[in-house]
């Protein structure tokens, strides 16, 4: 009995090879006045590509109503096994599915258009060194080392408390970004050159942008805990925004990586603010640091 899963394009479900004279891609008559399509492409590998649509055999009207052609042929012939889950694809994706795919397409298109510093030969290739300088300004290492240095030099309890929380914020950021990157595993854009200053293994993935999370987290932190004149406050916000934009211009990220990074950085600051470490709720940390 020919397996319906292995049948070629347009062949009616369950029909024998000799009866499948219909041309590829054309609807084939499945019996009972109904038409059914089998896979548009024969291999499972190509089915992984979402361009391949397949009618779910187990959910087709013919199957559901018990009038599958082979089943009708006799009780000894069992209906074909349902398609494996990975071979199936709904023909009527939900509105959410369509919206997400459209967003993804716009994201890829826009990110490619904005990636004007992705290489030396790109249209804005001459600005690339400046973008890379911005990249270092938002890198985890200078921020961690800077915070540790300031902590070691701080001689007031208030200063130490703020710096201890900044250190906590930076470490929380590294942890959450690494966790999400490892779970989502979205590859960096194809036009990115992997020439970044010190990276972790998860930094081969792009969602979310660690620079974008850090930019918003650190900016919110500075704006809330440092007394700055208005022009400096504007500069801090601008730095965060331009740093995020530079990630797309360098070709390191897609727009959605940076947008989600901004959102995550904003939420991270709220977490840090909520769990604010002080000599009252985390005395051990402060005593240990004092003893050094
Ligand atoms: C110094 C202390 C207390 C701890 C060190 C913790 C640690 C593992 C630091 C690693 C810092 C590091 C290499 C961060 C990577 C930053 C980076 C390249 C992020 C990628 O950003 P993206 O915007 O391209 O996603």
UniProtKB/TrEMBL annotation:
GO cellular component terms listed in the entry, alphabetical order: endoplasmic reticulum membrane; nuclear inner membrane
GO molecular function, one term: sphingosine-1-phosphate phosphatase activity
Family matches, as Pfam families: PAP2
Keywords associated with the record: Endoplasmic reticulum, Hydrolase, Lipid metabolism, Membrane, Nucleus, Phosphoprotein, Transmembrane, Transmembrane helix
Region Disordered: start-end pairs: 1-35, 66-86
SMART domains linked to this entry: acidPPc
All copies of domain Phosphatidic acid phosphatase type 2/haloperoxidase, residue ranges: 161-273
Reactions catalysed according to its record: (2E,6E)-farnesyl phosphate + H2O = (2E,6E)-farnesol + phosphate; (2E,6E)-farnesyl diphosphate + H2O = (2E,6E)-farnesyl phosphate + phosphate + H(+); 1,2-dihexadecanoyl-sn-glycero-3-phosphate + H2O = 1,2-dihexadecanoyl-sn-glycerol + phosphate; presqualene phosphate + H2O = presqualene alcohol + phosphate
Stored SUPFAM superfamilies: Acid phosphatase/Vanadium-dependent haloperoxidase (SSF48317)
Record localization: Endoplasmic reticulum membrane; Nucleus inner membrane
The organism's place on the tree of life at top rank: Eukaryota
Principal location class: endoplasmic reticulum
Protein name: Polyisoprenoid diphosphate/phosphate phosphohydrolase PLPP6
Species, as recorded: Propithecus coquereli
Source species taxonomy: Eukaryota, Metazoa, Chordata, Craniata, Vertebrata
